[in-house]
Write a structure and sequence with these properties.
By secondary structure, the chain is mostly helical. Helices cover 46% and strands 11% of the residues. It has 18 helices and 11 strands. It has helices at residues 2-8, 22-31, 43-46, 50-65, 86-92, 101-115, 186-189, 191-209, 226-237, 269-284, 302-328, 345-348, 352-364, 370-376, 413-436, 442-467, 471-485, 497-508, and strands at 68-73, 79-81, 117-124, 130-136, 141-145, 151-156, 162-166, 170-174, 216-219, 256-259, 338-342. The strands form 4 sheets. It has a 3-stranded antiparallel beta sheet. Helix 15 (413-436) runs antiparallel to helix 16 (442-467). The longest helix is centred in the middle third of the chain and has 27 residues, at 302-328. The chain is flat and about 110 Å long.
Length: 517
């Protein structure tokens, strides 16, 4: 029976090797098989290889640090956050009495990245609602299929007791796999690449432990007795390690030291270590700079590489978790209205300038309100007034009648707000020209007028949109206003800012047919 088992698992007797040893077979199963580099590589030993550790930690930690938001679909087709459900408590507070959500998610994801599968048992109450998630060890859990095609899980505890769990009782995050039911064992499939990298590290350690110099032989013109050989070996090998580097040694009676081997510099040991980082980078599809290899990372592309890490590496795992949670933690009726989504906005945020441009476009084209933007920046809302969305008039269907501007003795509250907005912008224009343009040439004034028109555009466009005025009219009116009033021959002070704002508002909204100085 033992011989059949050994042959079945590929450990048949070979005359040229000593692999026909049950004890060795047992060691291979427990500690991992040997790679061509001569090192045993298992899930535990692979984690001692720093690039592998870094990749697993970064992916697992990134995923675990992001909030998993529970949403409810509303009748209008939108969604709103929903906290009144047991799943919310499991994902945000305690998946079980002994573990916080970050640790639970991080550990399950680390299992996926090493074993190919991460498991957790779903404990439910009498109504079938999930009330706890209990971790299962991947080396003691196996997914199987019954004769009628029903999937189930076999689980062994520390005392080798077996239990059977239904498919809906196990939250199963799986990596790439052949059959779609389980993921490949990542460490076993990439044992050679990991063993090679671990071997390079071990070689470097051994090199420094042996006086940081290549090996060699001691030659002697005569013959030494066995006792003399042993004494010489002990005295010579007693001086080892970096602490004994460059110590003087005395050779007697014509004995010589002859070095052997290739120096690590000539063997390009540093380049070899970089290659091992690239290997791990390819295994997990993670940018090399995340693993400490900054050779191709620059100040100009590091932000793009970080965004690429989110979209090309992490998004795959986000979808894995979202789909498994939505399928296993909600019943059939709940799945029509409830779903979980990982909030990744924080990872995709660019620099301040890029965000400001994005917010300006969103505000101008009506898909962001002031409160939306403030929420993105983790700021408190300003109240109901911040929920107003602008209406870009130039996006109306052709032939649609424009809304008529409001009339009255004076500006209403919104009109007054636009006057204040434009007045503040005009103060900037006036301050700059009084401070910097005295005695300047026409070229400097031309640049100043271009800048003035650009910074006045947002306020003018917002005012015009509120009044239903076409954007092209705004551009033309604003250009004429700036060309007439922003000149060396028109002296302006900051006291004139509100008057200029009223003139600008009247001009762009069509309430004035001309300009008055």
């Amino acid at each position: 029976m033992m011989q059949w088992l050994l042959r079945h698992f590929g450990y048949d007797k070979r005359q040229s090797s000593g692999t026909y040893q049950p004890a060795q077979w047992f060691v291979d199963v427990i500690t991992g098989g040997k790679s061509a580099a001569g090192l045993r590589v298992s899930q535990h030993t692979a984690m001692t290889f720093t690039p592998f550790w870094a990749a697993v930690r970064i992916i697992s930690g990134t995923l675990a640090s992001l909030p998993m938001i529970l949403y409810r679909r509303n009748e209008s087709g939108g969604r709103q956050r929903y906290q009144d459900h047991p799943v919310y408590d499991l994902l945000h507070n305690r998946p079980n009495p002994y573990m916080d959500p970050v640790t639970f998610i991080e550990t399950r994801q680390a299992h996926v990245l090493t074993y190919g599968n991460g498991y957790a048992e779903i404990q439910r109450d009498g109504a079938g609602r999930p009330i706890a998630l209990w971790p299962l060890l991947p080396d003691r859990t196996e997914r199987k299929m019954s004769d009628d095609g029903t999937p189930y899980y076999e689980v062994w505890d520390a005392k080798a007791r077996q239990s059977i769990l239904r498919d809906d009782q196990v939250l199963h995050i799986k990596g790439l796999g052949f059959d779609g039911y389980t993921g490949y064992d990542v460490v076993r499939y990439h044992r050679e690449a990991l063993g090679y990298g671990m071997g390079v590290k071990q070689y470097a350690s051994t090199f420094f432990a042996n006086d940081a110099s290549p090996g060699g032989v001691l030659t002697y013109p005569g013959a030494l007795s066995q006792t003399a050989k042993e004494g010489l070996r002990k005295s010579w090998e007693g001086d080892r390690g970096l602490s004994d580097t460059h110590r003087m040694r005395v050779l007697e009676e014509g004995m010589k030291w002859e070095p052997m081997g290739v120096e690590p510099q000539k063997a390009q040991a540093l380049e070899t270590q970089k290659f091992t980082i690239s290997d791990v980078s390819r295994i997990f599809n993670i940018p090399p700079h995340k693993l400490g290899d900054l050779e191709r990372a620059t100040y100009s592309n590091i932000e793009e590489q970080n965004i690429d890490f989110v979209t090309m590496t992490m998004y795959y795992w986000f979808r894995k978790w979202e789909q498994e949670i939505n399928a296993k933690l909600f019943n059939d009726s709940e799945r029509k209205s409830l779903f979980v989504e990982i909030l990744v906005d924080g990872l995709l945020r660019g620099n301040v300038e890029s965000r400001a441009k994005s917010y300006a476009n969103g505000r101008q084209w009506g898909y962001y309100s002031i409160n939306d933007i403030r929420r993105f920046e983790n700021l408190n809302p300003i109240g109901p007034a911040g929920d107003v969305y602008l209406d870009p008039m130039n996006m109306r269907p052709a032939g649609s009648p424009a809304e008529q501007p409001q009339t009255g003795e004076g500006p209403d509250d919104s009109g007054r707000a636009f006057v204040m907005l434009l007045a503040n912008t005009w103060r900037r224009v006036i301050r700059k020209q009084n401070r910097e343009l005295a005695g300047k040439t026409n070229g400097a004034w031309d640049k100043h007028r271009d800048w003035s028109r650009r910074i006045l555009r947002d306020g003018a466009m917002a005012a015009a949109a509120a009044q239903g005025v076409d954007a092209q009219r705004v551009e033309a009116a604003l250009a004429e206003m700036v060309a007439t009033m922003v000149r060396e021959t028109v002296p302006l002070t900051e006291k004139d800012a509100e008057t200029m704002a009223q003139m600008t508002l009247a001009r762009v909204t069509g309430e004035s047919d001309g300009l008055q100085a």
